[in-house]
Structure formats: structure tokens, C-alpha cells
């Protein structure tokens, strides 16, 4: 196979307020091209730099140049051709076959993508023995054979299927008749050239071959999967299965819409997409979190005045000299609270757990009172169900991006009647710094934290009853802005969100930030930084 063609990419720069630095890449479905996005494109361009790609053999992209007797391109070769024209970092949105390919691309090179959106996409389009939410193999094969023999007739039937049941069915059919006239004319006389016909057949085979259930089940980046309530090609049953495969993925079903959501329901679809990106522009990259805290391990204790003050108060809320079997310090950092936890829980086995290997290395060297240290994510703790009596967690939960998942995991390992004692950073934190950055630019410069009540709601839903729950504000004071930023870096708590600006802050912007923050300087010439801290102590009653 000679893969010497380059796919056509349409570039559409943002015309409004840019929501994220990475472009949004659009991939169309089978039987279409990038013009399928024409109606929704102006809406997306208000907040994104958009790239639209024509798949091989569709639109202006030629199909692969084939030598006589050679097989059609493999799935990997097909995906490679798409990756070759994509930016090194982007979000991706695909409709139908495009959504299937987008998911495969994310599974192939996850580090290149910040978010995945699929529209009217079944993770496994054709039924399998263990998957009954797709098209039957018999119906699919009949469709494929019809396209091989009578492609124009097949396309007309396909257009009708896509529109069927939609509240805008008649209008949609007229739009398709007009927009697809060129393809219908071409396929009415396919003898003039066969390459495009072969490309479309390969697209259909990709629909039949691809099964993305494993990829979806292990997906770590934010994902939104949107379905039409009356879609005749991708039923809403697939939507429920996606939620079962991966509870962290978002699923939306739009009422009274069929397969062409991006044409018939532009406003609703755009609203869902923008809401998703607004929420997940603050998505925390766990690898960055771990690397950041590992890098800060040696400077952490000298800069952790707030952590120690808050942790000591949390300890005071726990009963004295209680006898427990297993106590976890979750997010233990350098292990500062190991000794006081042992004093509180006589004869207990204390386990230190942290996501940052660098922190655990320091903890092991400085804390000889315990032997068990685990490097693990709080959302996936490698301990058995009902195995822990007490979880103590001081200023760690704010680094968990999936609160419901965290609450489920904590409830899973805590014994009935077991206790959770935690502190976390809430939304009022670093309000002065946030307000100052707003005067400079629209990028995400300060970590986004949840409202204080969100923690209580999530843990209560998993069966925790709180004896203590309060939010308290702390003010720390600094000589200047660089003093604050240095301390945040020494703590590993500088900006870790996905929506951050990738390049260095310019000297001009830094001067503007200093000027904006100076407005908060107090009568003694100090710069304040507010930290809103949540304290929660609860018992699991299930």
C-alpha cells in the first residue's frame, strides 16, 4: 500500500472568545464530508479554532493510491493517515463513523487528546455475540452489497434512514438532497472512476470491524457521547451501555432527534458541547499532578504551613486513643501525620497512600514508624472491599477530577461503621489571584476547585453520615506575588488544569498581573491569599 496522499483539512479560526488553546478537530461520518458541519460550524467558531478533516475517499481527500493486487489499507494505516494531518494536541469530535474513528484515535494515542466528543456513534456498530445494541450483521451486509451494486440507490435509502423520525425530518431530507447531489450524480455512473467507490466501501467495512468498547472502558480523558432519541441507525440503548462501560463518561440524549443531530439540533448540540468544555477545561491531568508533587517532595515540608495547620485541626476532630485495625493516610505526602495518627489509633496498622512516587520516597526515608507505603490514585485504591477502619485525608481530594468515582471508591474500601476524616480545598480558594488574572487574559491560570457542599453531597450519596462538616477560610500573607507563586510551586500546587496556557507568560502580562494583585495589598503592605478549606468527619452507615 502506498500511503502518499494527504487528507484535506479545512481550518476555521475562532471568531469570538477562545475557550481553550487546543483546536477542536471534526471528523464527519460515512456518506458525507466536512461540509456536513456547515450549520454548526459558525456556533463552534465562536469559542474554538476548528479543523475539519475529509476522510480518505470522501470530499476532497483522495483514497489511498493502490498498486494492483494489493490489499486495502489496514485500520492502523487508515488511522495513521488521519493522525498525520492532526495537531500534536487537540480535542476531537466525530459524528457516526467519524465518532468511531475519533474514539479509535484516542485509544491509539491518548496523550494527543484533551477531550473526546462522539455524536450518534455506536462503540460497536454491528452486533456481536455479547453486544445486541448494534445493527444486525445480516442487515449490514445487505446494505454493503447494495452499495457495491447500486450505490446511488443505496445512498437515497441511507438519507431517508438518517432523517427518519426526526422532528425536522422533511427539512433534513431536502438539505441532504441538495448537499449530496454531487455524490448521487457521481455514483449514478461509477464506471468513470472507481477509487472513490472503493474508499466508501472501506469506510463501511471500518464500521463493521471496529469495536471500541475496551477503549471506552479505560478512557481517562473527559468524554461526551450524544445520541438522538429516535435515531434509526444508532439506538439509545447504546447510550446506556456507554455509561455502564465507563461511569466517568458523560452521555446525553436529545429528544425528538434522529441521526443528524448536528444539522437538526444545532443549538441543543452546541449547548451540550460548550457546557462540557466549560466544565472540563479545568480537568486535572493525573500524570501532571503526580509529577508535580513528586518534583515538590524535597521542598514540600518547608512550605506546608497551611497543610499542617489544617491537618492538626482535622486530627482534633477524631476520637482519642481509639482501637482500630487499619488506618489509611490517603494523600500522605511526606508522611508528616503518620506519628500523630499512630498516637490516635493505638496498635493500628497505618498505610500511607499517595499518587506521587517522589513524595513516598521522602516519606520512606523520614518516617520509620510504618512499613506500608502504596503509590496509588485515590480514585483507584488497591485494597479489598470493606478492609479499612479509618481514612484520614488532608488536602488531597481536591486533586481528584471525578468526585462521584472518588466517593464510590472510598465507600468500597471502608468497613460499615468505618470513619472518613478529610479536608479539601474549595472554590473560594485563591480568589485574589483569580480576580487578578481575569484582568490580564481569559486562560485558566488558577486551579479550579469545587463548591464546599459538593463533597458532602457526593459522600452522603454513598452512605456517609457526617458528624462534622464545615468550611473555613484561612488567609496567608506574602511579601509579593513571586513569594506566593514560589510557595505554590514548592507545594506542587501550581496550575495543573487542562485549560492552562501552554506558553510562558509574557513580561507585559506579568506586569499587568502584579499591578492587578497589588490592589489587594493590606495596610501592612502584605499580599493576602485566601484558602477555603472544607472539614468533614463522617461514618459509613450501609
Question: Could you explain how this protein is built, in words?
Answer:
It is a single chain. The chain has 542 residues and is of the alpha/beta class. The chain folds into 2 domains: 9-280, Rossmann fold; 286-429 and 446-476 and 530-540, Vaccinia Virus protein VP39 (Rossmann fold, 3-Layer(aba) Sandwich). Helix content is 39%, strand content 18%. It has 22 helices and 14 strands. It has helices at 41-44, 75-83, 97-108, 137-149, 151-163, 169-179, 181-187, 195-209, 213-217, 237-245, 261-264, 266-280, 286-295, 297-303, 305-316, 338-344, 357-366, 403-413, 431-438, 452-461, 481-491, 507-517; strands at 9-12, 24-27, 50-53, 90-95, 113-119, 223-228, 250-254, 326-330, 349-354, 372-375, 388-394, 414-425, 464-478, 527-540. The strands form 2 sheets. A 7-stranded mixed sheet has the order 1-3-2-4-5-6-7, sandwiched between helices. A 7-stranded mixed sheet has the order 10-9-8-11-12-14-13, with helices on both faces. The chain is elongated. The termini are far apart. The model is unreliable at 299-303 (pLDDT under 50).
Amino acid at each position: 500500500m502506498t500511503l502518499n496522499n494527504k487528507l484535506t483539512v479545512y481550518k476555521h479560526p475562532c471568531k469570538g472568545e477562545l475557550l481553550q488553546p487546543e483546536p477542536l478537530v471534526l471528523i464527519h461520518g460515512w456518506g458525507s464530508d466536512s461540509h456536513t458541519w456547515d450549520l454548526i460550524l459558525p456556533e463552534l467558531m465562536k469559542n474554538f479554532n476548528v479543523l475539519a478533516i475529509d476522510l480518505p475517499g470522501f470530499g476532497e481527500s483522495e483514497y489511498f493510491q493502490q498498486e494492483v493486487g494489493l490489499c486495502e489499507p489496514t485500520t492502523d494505516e487508515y488511522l495513521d493517515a488521519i493522525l498525520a494531518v492532526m495537531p500534536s494536541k487537540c480535542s476531537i469530535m466525530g459524528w457516526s463513523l467519524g465518532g468511531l474513528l475519533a474514539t479509535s484515535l484516542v485509544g491509539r494515542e491518548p496523550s494527543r487528546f484533551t477531550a473526546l466528543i462522539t455524536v450518534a456513534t455506536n462503540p460497536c456498530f454491528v452486533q456481536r455475540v455479547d453486544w445486541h445494541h448494534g445493527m444486525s450483521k445480516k442487515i449490514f451486509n445487505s446494505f454493503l452489497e447494495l452499495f457495491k451494486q447500486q450505490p446511488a440507490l443505496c445512498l437515497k435509502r441511507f438519507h431517508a434512514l438518517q432523517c427518519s423520525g426526526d422532528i425536522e425530518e422533511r427539512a433534513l431530507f431536502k438539505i441532504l438532497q441538495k448537499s449530496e447531489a454531487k455524490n448521487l450524480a457521481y455514483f449514478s455512473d461509477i464506471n468513470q472512476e472507481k477509487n472513490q467507490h472503493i474508499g466508501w466501501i472501506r469506510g463501511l467495512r471500518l464500521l463493521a470491524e471496529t469495536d471500541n468498547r475496551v477503549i471506552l472502558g479505560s478512557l481517562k480523558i473527559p468524554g461526551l457521547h450524544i445520541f438522538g432519541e429516535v435515531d434509526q441507525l444508532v439506538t439509545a440503548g447504546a447510550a446506556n451501555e456507554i455509561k455502564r462501560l465507563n461511569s466517568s463518561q458523560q452521555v446525553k440524549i436529545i429528544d425528538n432527534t434522529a441521526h443528524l443531530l448536528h444539522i437538526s439540533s444545532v443549538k441543543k448540540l452546541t449547548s451540550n458541547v460548550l457546557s462540557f468544555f466549560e466544565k472540563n477545561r479545568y480537568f486535572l491531568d493525573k500524570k501532571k499532578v503526580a509529577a508535580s508533587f513528586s518534583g515538590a517532595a524535597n521542598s514540600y515540608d518547608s512550605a506546608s504551613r497551611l497543610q499542617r495547620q489544617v491537618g492538626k485541626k482535622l486530627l482534633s476532630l477524631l476520637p482519642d486513643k481509639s482501637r482500630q485495625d487499619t488506618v489509611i493516610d490517603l494523600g500522605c505526602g511526606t508522611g508528616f501525620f503518620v506519628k500523630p495518627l499512630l498516637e490516635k489509633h493505638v496498635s493500628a496498622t497505618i498505610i500511607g497512600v499517595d499518587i506521587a512516587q517522589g513524595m513516598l520516597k521522602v516519606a520512606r526515608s523520614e518516617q520509620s514508624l510504618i512499613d506500608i507505603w502504596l503509590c496509588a490514585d485515590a480514585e483507584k485504591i488497591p485494597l479489598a472491599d470493606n478492609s479499612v477502619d479509618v481514612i484520614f485525608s488532608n488536602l488531597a481530594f481536591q486533586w481528584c477530577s471525578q468526585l462521584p468515582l472518588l466517593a464510590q471508591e472510598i465507600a468500597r474500601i471502608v468497613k460499615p461503621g468505618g470513619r472518613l476524616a478529610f479536608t479539601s480545598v474549595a472554590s473560594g480558594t485563591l480568589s485574589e489571584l483569580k480576580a487578578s488574572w481575569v484582568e490580564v487574559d481569559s486562560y485558566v491560570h488558577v486551579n479550579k476547585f469545587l463548591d464546599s457542599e459538593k463533597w458532602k453531597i457526593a459522600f452522603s450519596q454513598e452512605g456517609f453520615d457526617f458528624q462534622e462538616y464545615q468550611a473555613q477560610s484561612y488567609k496567608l500573607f506574602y511579601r509579593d506575588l513571586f513569594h506566593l507563586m514560589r510557595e505554590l510551586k514548592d507545594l506542587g500546587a501550581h496550575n495543573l488544569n487542562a485549560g492552562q496556557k501552554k506558553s510562558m507568560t509574557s513580561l507585559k502580562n506579568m506586569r499587568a498581573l502584579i499591578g492587578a494583585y497589588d490592589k489587594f495589598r493590606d495596610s501592612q503592605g502584605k499580599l493576602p491569599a485566601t484558602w477555603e478549606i472544607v472539614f468533614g468527619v463522617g461514618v459509613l452507615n450501609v
